[in-house]
Design a protein that fits this description.
Layout lengths: L1 E8 L6 H12 L11 E7 L6 H16 L5 E8 L1
Antiparallel strand pairs: 1-2, 1-3
Length: 81
Amino acid sequence: MKARVFVSYKSTVLDPQGQTVCAALRGLGHRTISDVRQGKVFDIAIADGVTREEAHKEIETIAHEILANPVIEEYRVEIID
């Protein structure tokens, strides 16, 4: 089993890297792009014998306490079979 954690800035937080990528895309002629938000993805392997519920609870804790800064970032956890 694996878990995937998506971490990105909250919509109220400025994202200078996303703004830079957006400006570059528009400069390359991609005029339909109106905004870009960058983020991080973590793929985490989970040991055999762990239930889906146990895995989800542990990964939620890890995401909240270690992978994301809950003051400025939001996260989403997916458990992948």
